[in-house]
Predict the structure.
Amino acid sequence: MKKFDRLHPEKFSSIREMIRRAVKSDPNHTAYVYKKNKEQISVSNDEFYTRLQALGAKLCSMGFSSSHIACVAENSFNWILTFTTSLCTSGVFVPIDKELPIENIVYLLNDSKSEIVFCQDKFERALSKYENELPNVKYFVTFERTESEGKYLSFSSLIESGKSLDKSEFESLTNDENALKYLVYTSGTTGVAKGVMLTEHNICSAIYYGMRISHMLDRGLSVLPYNHTYEAVCDILVAIHSHTTLCINDSLRRIQENMKLFKPEFVMLVPAFTDHFYSVIKNNIEKKGMTKSFNRMIKFSNSMRKVGIDLRRKLFAEIHRNFGGALRRIVCGGAPIRSDVSEFFDNIGISVTGGYGITECSPLVSLNHDEDNNIFTAGRRLECIEWKIDKPDENGIGEILIKGDVVMKGYYNRPDLTSEALKDGWFYTGDYGYITEKDEIVITGRKKNIIVMSNGKNIYPEELEQRIAQIPYITEVVVSADKNEFGQDIALKALVYIEDENIDVSALSDDVKKACDGLPPYKRVSKVERRSEPFEKTTTNKIKRTSD
């Protein structure tokens, strides 16, 4: 087999084919690194596939070759092994959000018709109390268990048992590439969960066409929750096809500690993380009284870059050491990237690239190219899709519609919701934006968040929030509207959270007004309120808006 070329990926038709190619091409490549009892464990491609085959063979012998297989657990190598094995069966993988209340988890297991559940010990204990309410579930497979007991099985025992089984049945399993393969429940920040039906063709298309625009580096840190498609598809699965070593972050609280330990070249995050890193770095520089000298270094560095000399990693080595010393790229998804944050990281030698995606599109729609990173757009569309703007206003802004290979089959057992979202092959995203002359997408906000003023003007609160968030001492902000007695939106207000209680906020209102300078009068914030607690977040660290 010819040597793998990350810059020119080859097409593949199934996840199994993709994994087999990676293993055959480089069996000794380190696929995963993770911590266990303070020790670093490395897993090669060959070791990974041996365990995958064993688990797959065992599932076949138990009669689960075409079942709905659920997983509810923290990020771990075992989660990845369960995920990839399930995708190689003829069944359906169902990731469950570990942060949901147990009653919601029970509901999703029933709604998805899951027959076997992989989980952590704490979820086994919780779900065992609802055993009689889960008639479809035949077994619970627990990652920490050392011995099996009744319908509660040991994950490690299943793999050990599977190693001695004939693998031919598992290896010969086939799939209809357009059949349901990956059932992901999403409800945004609130509301009834919807099961997004993704096919193997959807997933393979997102991987291949995404890699045609942006490629991975040699070593990454895997951080975001695995039950979300952004992390599962764009990081875990793309890493396999890219021959990338993926290091597993064991806790969000230890992300910087693990960056120093694993020394990744790239990491996939949501903007809330980059915003936090930016604030911490800037605050430390200010506390040391080095703001002026830091700005001079930036100016000198940028002047040297203009003549082809890049000194960023040397000049800002101390900052780089806090990220492990090897970090070159942060890939952001889930929300627009603040331009000041992206520019800051670029100035110190770390590129911040972004794109646009939504679970219903597997989840990738567009990406910024590695060599042409336009921080003011969400990049160029995947070659396998079409896009257009529905009912654009005078500024070209309207709802973004997507058609093509990454678009879902529909919502599981919800033909009513499916018919609302899919019309004549077009998926109505619920996101608003516009397409530039260069065929790049700019996201202005969510349809459900739009504020319609009494004068008929549409306000996208995300635009104002991005501006206000650039005020150095503001940690979080949500823009909403005050209403009159008739329920009409008449004035904009900003609710802000400031983490540092010692900050003098006497100039808060003035600073917010300055942040909105240059905007038309109807976009001006007239009221600013401070809250004492952080906003409630989703599991991907998005603020839950009270308007949802």
